[in-house]
Fold each of these.
Amino acid sequence: MSLTIAQKIIARAAGTDAVAAGDYVTVTPDYTVMQDIYFWKNIKILERLGVPEIAHPDKVVAVLDHTPQAALGSEHVARNRESREFVRRTGFSNFFDAGRAGLRHLVMVEHGFARPGLLVFSDEPNIASIGAVGALNVPISTEVLVSMVRDSNWVRVPASVRFELTGTLPRGVWIRDLVQAICREYAGGDGLVQRCVEFGGPGLARLGLDSRQGLLAGMYHAGADTAVADVDEVALDYVRERAGSRPYEVFTADEDAAYDEVRTWDLGALEPFVTVPPRHSGVVPVSEVGGRRITQATVGSCASNRIEDLRAAAEVLRDHDIAPGVTMYVTPGSPGVYAQAAREGLVELFTERGATVLSPGCTTCWGYLGALGDGDVAVSTNQENYPGRAGSRTAEIYLASPYVVAASAVTGRITDPRELLPAEGAVHVLG
Amino acid sequence: MSSASTSAAPSPAVRRGRVWKFGDWISGDDGIVRFSELRNFGDDHDPADLARRCFAGLVPDFASRVRPGDIVVAGRGFGIPSHPPAPMALRAAGIAAAVVESTDSAFVRRSLNAGFPVAICPGITAAVEEGGELEVDFATGRVTDIDSGAVMTTKPFSPAMLEVLDSGGLVPYLERYLAGEARA
């Protein structure tokens, strides 16, 4: 056999020995995960279809991550109540309500749903972050509805590319900068389109699970359908703590697996980047847009809302207040991340420096909280940068790492974090 | 426009119409429609409203010039990123299919679920003219430029995908499935 990791996972879920890129196969998913708005919408459709409850409730996960704050005047107050009534009536147990939720990307790994070798259907390509523990995200959009009715669906087997990471991130450089380096080369073209990006190598092994998730969560913006990483002891330790007795299987790619491209990325050669709106391909070194005035700085989203990301922002803010005229929001990705940030004193630090720590959720990434007004300029770790994404169409969203975001919040202008970081500091790479 | 098919009932898998050409990276959320102007994410959308919004930011008089059965030909990255209203708007505007250089798998599925077929066909933008006539057979993967007779290929839809297309989208497909009437 000569299969990539993604192909092996799909073959297992299809109950077959071999699949080839481009094949359509029918698979039984291990889980299907969806956000609150789709969940509410889908239970309404189930009602219309005369389906009284979710067919395989143990395999469906629904997470209140877009609208847990249920703002005054929004339709989400009523919708969330209807979702809760459905959950009560049917006894559906994998509903993660406000307070238990956070982003579904994090819920999947923190609660041990995402495990090595599993195939997960989802409503969003960014959930490829679960590939950090060896699970394959297959984004099927509105079709998550099907998994509430039956236990199978079709998949088109993706081709794969293999990215080997070497080196160690230099000071002031974050895994987001690798995402941007990849976007700079691929986001304007077809090199990763309809493909799975497979990561490995000694550089990956030196990254913590948080950084691996952030990396994989961004591959959609370079054009990829999904992404998955080699599973090492760091990943397995994480999984073992959360999987309980639930099964998993570690797959490695065959020696002769067919890749459309194999390529090495040296983490040590990276520098801080900024993505200039409105496209993901607009990646430039921070120096090229340095000095641009900002009005908002945000750390959060499925790209950068884990504890390592918050620590990076805090490292910059340790000795610096946020500039007048800048509103800074920090959104921990889950209650677990929030609590950890509190234990480490990060919530206190952010608050003292003038940032607002929001409750877990998607928050500023889609403008549900901290919406942008006309003429606002944001520098953000969020995932999207098109006009109107988080409010006004005339607002601009520059994407960058938590280091760049925090440094820019301090000066009120887009800033190279290496100018502000103390010479000695915590090394963010985990062993 | 007459159907190329000789059978009495034309297959919903065959789409033939006049070509509208678009460039690269027309996103679903800001190019096809402006998702930010549809704030009630998750609402049922009025098809007439979506039809008026389709491509309105790119071709201001699109709604008045588009004809039922027209086909969109577009470049790289069509529909990336997207939310459900994007393909709903294409269908509501009367467009029969999109044939694109590239898009992501999620957009293909999202579109099919809205009853709108998307074909990936590298080279298509150089091969056809604006206003020309194009036929796409999603069952065989044949893409035919009627004016020149040139034939290109796309990956044919699987039986399961054709069944969704034939049903008119995901929810009507599930109605068939639950009634025991689905073949795939």
Amino acid sequence: MGYSSVRGGMDAIEHAESLIAAQVTDSAHPVALPQVRDHVALLLDQVMGEGGVYDVDLGALAVKQAEGDPIEAGFLLRAYRTTLPRVGYSFPSSGRQMRILRRVSSAFRDIPGGQVLGRTRDYTQRLLDFALRDTPPQATAPSADLDALPAGAAPAEFPLVIDTLRTDGLMHEAPRRTSDEEPFDVTREPLRFPATRAARLQVLARGETGAMLSLAYAGMRGYGGAHGYIAELRYGDLPVLISHPITGGQVRIGWVPVTECYQVVGGDEGAKHEHDGSEDHVHEHDHSPDYVVSYGVVIGRNERKAISMSILDGSLKKATKSGAAIEDEEYVMYHIDSIEAMGFVEHLKLPHYVDFVASVQRTSKVRELVAAARRG
Amino acid sequence: MATDTSTAPRQSVVADQEQRTFRALLDAMARPGTIQALPQARPADGAWGSALIVMQCLLDHEVTFAVEADDRSVHEQILRRTGARSAPLATADYVLADAAHALAAFEAAIEGDVEEPERSATVVVHVDAVGSGALRAVLSGPGIQTVQPLVLDGLNVVALRALIERNAVYPTGIDTIFVDPQGRVACLPRSTRIEMED
Amino acid sequence: MGVRALIEERGAAFEGYTFGFLDDMAKREIRRAILKGVAIPGHQVPFGSREMPIARGWGTGGLQITLACVGADDTIKVIDQGDDASVNAVNLRRLIAKTTGARETLTTGDATLIQTRHRIPEERMTAGQMLILQVPIPEPLRHVERSVAAARAMHAEADYARMWLALYEDVVRNGEVTAGAGYPVMVNHRFVMAPSPIPRWDIPKLDQAETLFLFGAGREKRIYAVPPYTDVKPLEFEDYPFSIEGFPGMSCRRCGATDSYLVTSPQADGSTLSVCSDASYCDDVLGGRKVVNQW
């Protein structure tokens, strides 16, 4: 024990680290970060979203370092994020300001501004493309160009479909909020229940895609989900606007790609929703047309998660609960965080022999007591 | 030992002072009534120096504060150095009071509720001296083996009685930090029982 | 000033990370929570637990407390199951050392800050020391009330009826309170507290100790404390008193101690090897150094 065994533990850790390092770097075909960015873009988006950092270079580095494990890569980003100073706050961006690259509605055949199918695998045939086995002889232009707007074209603002529903009286007006309201920040403040909707949406936006998909699916199969309609699913870039440090005016410092899902739930389903006056409306009279919106928003291209998020948002907002787990905000919000879930599940790998001795002694004591009782 | 610490980041002067201040406060809060030493204050800050060190250690823009004192300059100093938001006494997370205004602070500062007793004020009282003076009390409770004297100069007995009153219904209550210009600090968490010496 | 410039201003040592890894605001928040926790012994104070470079559930709560406390004058010791050599303890200690330059020690008596998982050292700690315990589940009521909000209300009203009922049912069913590690305690006659999964052996050490105990649950985002000289009593029935583990007829194979918590490993020949779980204590006994192990 003592120093030499501590040195032994240190040696073991250092060897484990070098084995990992070798795995990441040793290859006849080493991967450079631009390849991660171009070829595993969807993984990169998922990692940046769950990691809570939008930075393509850091995200690509995390993916490479984590050998493509999305949770591990997200964890690297989160741990790095902790160390960054907060230099300011942006103005709120609305989906109305989105530079649209894809936009579909399943609630309407046609929508104002038109449907834009964009880049999607939805209607492709899932056949392995053996042509991809061969490395192309020369580099081609980055595929991002596919998304680029025609030169000189001003980005059009597309109305939101829910705006149409509001105009038609199917939904109530959105409540007015002041933009200088301090947002709740789940990365700085511990959750308190009942959580604010802002806190809920933040936790959902950082949630693990697979966990959310699974819960949303269970909800749709009858475990507390509401059947809604996708009023609009859109993908594109949202502007990041800040206050100019000198002039005080709004300036755009960049764009963030996001996927947004607006799901509407109406009729009986809608009536079961609480009206917290936040994103949706407040009842004015009982017989008004009553659709409410459930919302999902995710960094990058991740429609699966955006839709799952809108389902979970809808379940959590229900005023009349069925008792299903996905309507329970503690259940959902505590268990979809990949970093926390993986940490605690995998901590079972740590030694527990002190606890185990304690447990065995209790078990033996109970056995003795039972035996004594039998003997009378 | 084994770890190479040659590349370890250095603590900035300000961060170092905050860390030392925190440890003094932690010792003082864990052992109510004992006198701990704060780091050296800036001479330019005068009598408020030690109190400012305490406020700087605890405050940033995530919390609110109020100042109850005749000398308003210290309010400006706290705003500038911590970025904390100014708030009315009745809602402030941290309150700095001079001895003359301690009564008002003890009477009006927030005490939290039973579900969240931590959402209560910490009141920093700037007194003439900690460890000597006319006001004597005997403390007992968590952090104290048997009994512990608390001796202060400049604080009115009425103020201390008001604090006892406010902390009567545990776990809600106010936690108090007494500082003097010499950098001595002593704490009175709400869990401490206070008896006045006649 | 841009983000890059700001980061650079904070010092580029250790690949751009700051002293103690956490930024000053995070440290301040943790410090505020610690002080409130000390002022309300046994009450869980929520805090904005930061993402750490080690996994959640692997000591991030204890680590954040340690990093918020540690300074240039400190000597740190980290143990897991009582052992400084456990790989996770080694990893935590080198992270603390690498980001703060703090001195490290393996000797309980030399440390000013000890971070621990699942043990309280055998050697009695003193007023100049702090013990920082890593906590997986800070809520002692979790197994009788899974909702955090509902458990909080129970603490508020000091309504521990369901906890007592669960203990009673345990006694009826098993003839004993079967809780092994992490036996629930009552702190300062007010709050039921999870002492973290320390064995029963260590529970009495929390009562009226000279030293300050800080508890950190990173994943669950809670900090709580037991100040020195505070009443900490295990929940027990008069006719079913609390008892600690016993090792009758056993001794440490390495140092021969018969008065320490022993852990056992099965051997290839079918026998069992018992050694001290507390590595520092084992070294002291082996080296003939006298240490006080009566808390």
Amino acid sequence: MTLSHGAPKPVTLISGYLGAGKTTLVNHLLRNAGGRRIAVAVNEFGALPIDPDLIEQASGDVLTLAGGCICCSFGDDLTSGLVELAARTDIDCILIETSGVALPGAVAQSLSLVAGLKHEATLVLLDAETARKLARDKFLSDTILRQLAEADLIVLNKTDLVSDDARVDLRDWLATTAPRAKIVETAFGALAPEIAFGAYAPSAFVADEPTTLGGAGPQSQSFEIERTVHVARLASMLAAEQAGLVRAKGFLRDADGWKLLQIVGRRIDITPARAPQDGVGRLVCIAHGAPLERARIAAIIQGCSFPNPSS
Amino acid sequence: MTTTIYSARKIITMNPARPTASHVAVRDGRILGAGTLDELKGWGKHIVDDRFADLVLMPGFVEGHSHAFEGAVWRYVYCGWFDRVAPDGKTWEALRSLDAVIARLAEQEKALPDAAAPLTGWGLDPIYFGNKRMTREDLDRISPNRPIGVMHASFHILNVNTRALELAGLMRTGVNHPGVPLGNDGLPTGEMKGPEAQGTVAAHVGLDRAMMSGDERGLRDFARLCVRKGVTTATDLANPLPPDTVEMMLRVTGDASYPARIVPLRRYLGDDARGTIEAAAALAEKSSDRLRLGLVKIVVDGSIQGFSARLRWPGYYNGAGPGLWYVPPQRLAEALDAALEMGVLVHCHTNGDEATELVLDTMERALRKHPSPDHRFTLQHCQLADRAQFKRMARLGMSVNLFPNHHYCWGDEHYALTVGPERAERMNACRAALDEGVPLGIHSDAPVTPLAPLFTAWCAVNRITASGRTLGQTEKIGVYEALRAITLGPAWTLKLDGEIGSIETGKRADFAVLQDDPLEIAPENLKDVRVWGTVHGGRIFEAAKI
């Protein structure tokens, strides 16, 4: 009995308390799927989890959506729902919209129970206006703080509703409350899909010039790397705050073979990979907000490269 | 229009104005009155039926928190620490060692026709085996080829064999989940804790989720168990109640020979609180005499032994985290608001005292918006409430349904591990509830513990744990109070106390027919009162023939 086909499906978790904008973000990502066939998993079809114009057909626990996407409800049995999704060959990636009080770390652990899935990223949404109040709430404080502490990326939403001073305060507070995470600011849940799902290989690897990913904030830089690099060292430098990026993905040659490198926020994942046909390593870095300086990233790569054996 | 006057050795009416009687008159399935034969003769033409002359009648027991799955679970092999009676009347003997469990499963395995069919057990409670854990290798001894699963009594843990793990794709390294302990080889030991871990293997070992809610045979078997234990009204708490399940339940309970009244509560899940309440209100229209619809259950937190109940400071005795919310507080508020507005009765599952606190705070605000003098909203389990919280329940007009069976089965573990000695003694504080004026029901949560209200009453009266420790002397209640908590008490929480719960004029002719007198027998033997059967709406059901 086979449970899945091919590479494990990446799973992105979208967490955060009610009102943070999870549903708006999910709809935005579905509208900007860029050819990705996304399966959205929700607790239950409540009051309009998906914008009606995106729904092509509804049958039982599955909604068929535009662009080959689907939305399914798992009720109170998340793992059974995920087993079914892992076995589907007609989807590329999975988005789980967790309940407002779920702890994303626990959901991420559940993913390890299902063969054929891979935890890609945990996005925790925060309503910039109400965040501090919620974090002090008598009943919710520890839940909200744990959600933030378990985030790879915090999507600070509704920033259009707060003053610049309040925004700076909030970011300072998050730096201590969510030390694992990097922060992206959005309004109306308009997050670039590359930030939610990562660079979409292979097309993302061919661009040479900085690419704007839609919206004002995000942009990407791609690099071709022929030399052997110290992948772990490169990863830790790219994941540091100063590098200015929120995600990165690369196929790189290390001293002991080819590696797939993924960085989400500060989390680094390095796994053995097959060599590309042309023997050239590639790296895509995605930033949000501050401009991504190509020269700086190039210098980091240079600093992590082994001397070329042929030179 | 036949009037039958039944004589009895004694009738315990639970009607304080007329606590005992020798006769009860029944017409059209309802009670004309309880009293002497002479008093009842005044109702006119009648027949006198002496079949209960040597027996004791009580109002039919009301189980305020059970699951109809108690009927279906008997299709699996019983593996528990206590003797337990199946729907067909067979007593499955207690299994007192891991070897005995394996031996019974192996014996049942031989009877399975299909070589690949799963073998499923339930009711395991290894805490009584000195906490020797069952492993996949233990179950592999039964069969290496057939998927095997054994559900624990608490339903929080499922043990499976290697074949089941293979089918679930879990015989691999790299599993990283607190609910899946790994052996020295880096592979799962076969113990699956919590719903997420169980969800991966449940279907492979024959644990069909559809059976939990919509199983016709299970619903029929559940009623047979009710007859054996004197229960005439039982809740199914809760059920998602999709339309086909509602139709099935209406049809089955509508059979002329169906011996119980079922009260399924619709479970709230998801983000549409108001929609759930509206749907429940619409379901109420479909109610029949023996299927009462329209109530809602909201699960607020997890369980104490699973460390997922929400506890106030200082939290768990062993230092585990604060627990989990199962519903966002804002959705709870929306649901209670809508329910008060529409007059839908809501029961909230709260195990931890912080979950109870949240419901009390939320209820206080909701009542300010929608003053409701007779809402009957009920806290279910509510195992850790303190006196201050019982006082608030009383002020807010709430009822409580406590869980003394749990105290018996797992009180020792709560004392040593989960909440520590002091709070373990005040768990399921029946005395506090009554002292503070909170209407009280007590329950089994069957199949978690056996459906048997007299056993539940015994637990509340004696507060003894499985190891023999008396846990919470001051929270004991008297036998009469306990009998009220298995009749009128839970009937009140379901807004059915005007119809059932006592033997008095106008109520349904629902009786528990007993061979011993619960008020005469020594309180420490209350659980041993023998049940002859029931009368339901005037129809007679003998346990020995059901």
